[in-house]
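User: I'm putting together a teaching handout on how multi-component assemblies are represented. Below are the sequence lines for each component of a complex, exactly as they appear in our records. Could you produce the 3D structure of the whole assembly as C-alpha cells, so the students can see both representations side by side? Please keep the chain order the same as the input.
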Amino acid sequence: DADVTQTPRNRITKTGKRIMLECSQTKGHDRMYWYRQDPGLGLRLIYYSFDVKDINKGEISDGYSVSRQAQAKFSLSLESAIPNQTALYFCATSDTGTGGNYGYTFGSGTRLTVV
Amino acid sequence: GENVEQHPSTLSVQEGDSAVIKCTYSDSASNYFPWYKQELGKRPQLIIDIRSNVGEKKDQRIAVTLNKTAKHFSLHITETQPEDSAVYFCAASIGFGGQFYFGTGTSLTVIP
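Assistant: Of course. Below is the structure of the complete assembly, with chains in the same order as your input.
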C-alpha cells in the first residue's frame, strides 16, 4: 500500500555529501518517526514528531536532522554523510490511539549506501 | 529509557511444528506490545499486538502471551508454514500511539 511513501528507494552517496530522505503519508496520522535498521541491531529510533511543531530526538540522533514540513511530510537529512550511516531507513506513522489502533505503518524503506 | 531484549536471534523449525519467540522489557510502565513481521526486502508489518490489561491474545495460528510480573511477552506460531519464514520484531511502548522500543529481531526459517 502506498499510504506511507519514502523517496528515494535506493541511494548511493559519497562521504561528506548532504542527503535528504523524504517521507509522505496519506493516512492522516499526526505522529511520524524515522528509524534505521542494521543487521543484528533491529530498528533504532532517530527522530520523531507528534505534530508539525513537535520534534524530538531518538536514541541515535547524532549526525541527523529532520524537518516536519506539514502533517503529511517528514524529512530526514544527513548533513555530512559518513560510511557508518549506511543502513536501511524506515519512516513510520501512528495514530494518537484514540481510535483503538496503535500500531505503526511503515514506509517501504530507503536503502542508503555511503561510500 | 525502555530496553527490549529478544531471543533467539535465529530459529529454524520443520514445517508444521511450533515456533516461540520471547522478549523481555525493562520498564514496568510499558503497556502496549506489538509484533511485526518483515519479509525479505519488505517493510515491517504488524501481525498481532497485546495491551497490558490482557494476558493472552490469539489470531488464527498466531498468539501472544504477556507476563507483566516477569516483564516478558512471547509470540507463538503454531502449524508453521514456509510463508511464515521472515524476521520478527517485538516492541514495547509506554502509552498508546507513541514511541516504540524494538527488539533486535528473530530470523525464522520454516523448513519444508
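A couple of points students might notice: The CA atoms of residues 8 and 91 of chain A lie 12 Å apart. DSSP finds no helices and eleven strands in chain A.
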